[in-house]
Design goal:
This protein has about 750 residues and is an alpha+beta fold. The strands form 13 sheets. Strands 8, 9, 10, 11 and 12 form a five-stranded antiparallel β-sheet that branches. Helix 3 runs antiparallel to helix 4. About 20% of the residues lie in helices and about 35% in strands. The chain has five domains: about 130 residues, Tetratricopeptide repeat domain (Serine Threonine Protein Phosphatase 5, Tetratricopeptide repeat); about 270 residues, TolB, C-terminal domain (Neuraminidase), CATH 2.120.10; about 80 residues, Sandwich (Immunoglobulin-like); about 100 residues, Carboxypeptidase-like, regulatory domain (Immunoglobulin-like, Sandwich), CATH 2.60.40; about 140 residues, OmpA-like domain (60s Ribosomal Protein L30, Chain: A), CATH 3.30.1330.
Length: about 750
């Protein structure tokens, strides 16, 4: 748990209400807990035990605040499976799991939290970004970090630039004769120190100034660029809140006549809430700070206020939900370029505890993309108070990660490459001849088909979109008197700028339009291969349908009152292909819809199915005892020929079956001759004749009859013979059902 001054604020926001009757020992435990003496609370609850969910929650939170995460996880695992647990309990459990690097399990519990508290932005974002921890753990080589030798065994954090020096807060043991200790961590109170910047460390460490370092907490500190205005955080010594908690205040001091003036409180302070963690913009005109004042989004939020020319302050303005969450956002740092804001948050999706985030600042001052900076800056513990020099080359941050020298340590880093806020997709709208098109509406769609952004091209035909990296995108362009155009692109590339031009085709006034759908579901079919042949010119063009299942063919060569004749061959994986012919006279301008005249539905087909049932083939008859193909049988076999030529990958087994009348041997021989004769007829008329073979089964595979109740019965000889004397017509019908030819699909 972070040991910054706002830790007390965070804790108080998660404070508990105790409804049960308590004994003397438990009252002492609760008093210790509410007074932030968590080690004392742990000692007392370990003595008296935790029989209720409230007691478990107090002890779990005490473990959590003292960084005993294993014990905290174990207790919260019991709490979230106990009647009476809350959504906040689930969120706390998921957060502790994240700090213990149990990320998959944390994602599962974050999803449960989101189900219980559907309006909470934290749950929504965690569900949307489940699994992102894998990407955040990947060190992209942007930062090279080093733990500083100047760190103590206590707390060191909150580095700030002061002229050519670094000022930071520390609870290290100083030279004071009286050591006052902060009760929750039993470390000394914070003081402010100043040090010189060396190549790889901080040197010549001294106390900053006696007017700043008093008997309780002071720090962190912020300075303006000139170094003559200091704003720092301090305990509210004078006023306690109604609940008895000492809050935090911001104070300012000015360097006048070679000395710092007496600190004065800022107008945002209150006894009832805390204000701290200040930073000042490079131009000295804006103050940023953190506070849990009323009216925020929840927890600790980041605010800004104008620093006026006369030194007074404007109203505090919440930075809004682009930055703040229902969790805690703190340690703001505005870079000298005014192009991005750094801050830490435990409400946004991260690796655990507080993570460092960077928010883009647009030209109009609004916030753009907000990114987790990932490893190695962020870890599963608290990472915060990030600052960066004006050249974006080196900086400092604090962390209580494993492997440090003390509680919170200051780390120095070298930054090898700048922040890039996603990728840019840019391009030009033009026609098929390469002419630039102005006034084109360009729409950007995400991988789910939702529109993200839109822009209309100017005279130069150019457009651009700022988008997240590593995603797939679709662009569409629309302009009056042009057919819509589009293209797909991806930002999963090493390039920061992705070029994607959009071409539109001028509408000549006449066009063919076709929509191909599934015969059963009526839904459009994606990736249908269409061969469109102009029967008058012999020219064939090929198309692939998008997810919308349609295609549009401009008819530049046609004019009013011309005739048109086109063959359309349709093929799609998992469907029975077909060829249709469309004839029309173009007697009016517009779009001619082929599917409104012809059946462009495709029949879904599976290996093992009987083709004769799909394309409705009539029974194939032979003369008694013969296997010669009759003219009426040839008509039916031609249907198979047509389908197999339309589906050149299809393989068929032609099976011939007889009824049970006659000897087994003669039936098998006759059916085999008929099957082979039928297959031979088809072989002569299809490409790659090896795609079909014939086999006779005689009477060995009787057909199945579906009864009125939906059950099936095999048409075996015993069953059929039961109708021989009672229903001669039924008897003959059942035998006829067994005399059949099947075309079983072996491959598509």
């Amino acid at each position: 748990m972070k040991k910054s001054l706002l830790s007390a604020v965070i804790f108080s926001l998660a404070s508990l209400t105790f409804a049960q009757e308590t004994g003397g020992k438990e009252k002492k435990a609760i008093k210790a807990y509410e007074g932030f003496s968590w080690n004392a609370a742990i000692e007392k609850y370990e003595e008296i035990g935790t029989a209720t969910i409230d007691q478990k929650r107090v002890l779990a939170n005490s473990y959590w605040r003292t960084n005993d995460l294993a014990q905290a996880e174990e207790l919260y695992s019991q709490i979230v499976t106990t009647d009476g647990h809350t959504a906040d309990d689930i969120y706390s459990y998921a957060s502790i799991l994240r700090q213990n690097k149990s990320y998959e399990k944390s994602d599962e519990w974050m999803a449960k939290f989101s189900e219980m508290n559907v309006s909470d932005s934290r749950g929504k974002e965690h569900v949307a970004k489940a699994g992102i921890y894998q990407k955040l753990q990947n060190d992209k080589g942007q930062f090279v970090i080093k733990n500083l030798d100047v760190n103590s065994e206590q707390q060191d954090f909150g580095a700030a630039y002061y002229k050519d020096k670094i000022v930071f807060a520390s609870s290290r043991e100083g030279v004071k004769s009286i050591y006052r200790r902060w009760n929750w961590n039993e470390l000394p109170f914070l003081d402010v120190y100043v040090a010189d910047q060396a190549a790889h460390d901080l040197t010549n460490l001294t106390h900053f100034h006696k007017k700043i370092n008093k008997k309780f907490h002071e720090g962190p500190v912020a300075f303006n660029k000139a170094g003559d205005l200091m704003i720092f955080t301090r305990n509210n010594y004078e006023d306690k809140a109604l609940d008895g908690v000492t809050r935090l205040k911001l104070f300012q001091s000015k360097f006048v006549e070679d000395k710092w003036s007496k600190p004065e409180p800022l107008p945002f302070n209150s006894a009832e809430y805390s204000v701290g963690h200040a930073c000042i913009s490079d131009d000295g005109k804006t103050l940023f700070f953190a506070s849990d004042m009323p009216g925020g989004l929840g927890g600790v939020d980041i605010y800004k206020a104008e620093i006026k020319a006369d030194g007074t302050f404007g109203e505090a303005v919440n930075l809004g939900d682009k930055i703040n969450t229902e969790g805690n956002e703190m340690f703001p740092f505005i870079h000298a370029s005014n192009e991005f804001l750094m801050f830490s948050s435990n409400g946004k999706v991260g690796l655990g505890g507080l993570d460092v985030f960077v928010a883009q600042i647009k030209e109009d001052g609004a916030f753009g993309k907000v990114m987790n900076v990932g490893a190695p800056i962020n870890s599963s513990r608290d990472d915060f108070s990030f600052i960066l020099d004006q050249n974006s080359q080196t900086g400092f941050f604090a962390s209580n990660r494993e492997g440090g020298k003390g509680d919170d340590d200051i780390y120095k880093f070298d930054m090898t490459k700048p922040f890039t806020f996603g990728k840019t997709i840019k391009g030009v709208a033009k026609d098929k001849d390469g002419n630039i098109l102005a006034g084109v509406l360009i729409q950007l769609y995400n991988n789910d088909g939702d529109e993200e952004q839109r822009v209309t091209t100017g005279e130069n035909g150019e457009y651009s979109f700022l988008v997240p990296a590593d995603l797939d995108w679709a662009l569409s362009g629309d302009k009056e008197k042009y057919f819509p155009g589009g293209t797909n692109t991806s930002t999963a590339t090493d390039e920061d700028v992705v070029i994607a031009d959009v071409e539109l085709e001028k509408d000549p006034g006449l066009s063919l339009y076709a929509l191909i759908t599934d015969k059963e579901t009526k839904e459009p079919i994606d990736s249908v291969h269409i061969k469109l042949t102009d029967n008058m010119t012999g020219i064939t063009e090929e198309y692939w349908t998008p997810a919308t299942g349609d295609f549009l063919k401009p008819l530049k060569e046609k004019k009013l009152n011309d005739r048109g004749s086109y063959n359309l061959t349709l093929e799609a994986k998992g469907y029975l292909g077909k060829t249709v012919t469309y004839n029309t006279e173009f007697d009016k301008e517009g779009k001619y819809e082929v599917h409104s005249v012809l059946d462009l539905t495709l029949e879904p087909i599976q290996v093992g199915g009987d083709l004769s049932k799909i394309i409705d083939i009539n029974p194939i008859y032979f003369d008694l005892g013969k296997h010669k193909i009759r003219p009426d049988a040839a008509l039916e076999l031609d249907k198979i020929v047509k389908v197999m030529n339309e589906n050149p990958e299809m393989e068929i087994e032609l099976g011939s079956h007889t009824d049970s009348r006659g000897s087994d041997k003669s039936n098998e021989s006759l059916s085999d001759r008929r099957a082979k004769a039928s297959a031979a007829y088809i072989k002569e008329r299809i490409s790659n004749p090896d795609r079909i073979n014939g086999k006779g089964y005689g009477e060995y595979k009787p057909n199945k009859l579906i009864l009125d109740d939906g059950s099936e019965i095999e048409l075996k000889e015993d069953y059929i013979n039961s109708f021989k004397s009672s229903d001669r017509k039924r008897y003959d019908e059942l035998h006829q059902m067994n005399r059949r030819t099947e075309f079983i699909i072996l491959k598509m």
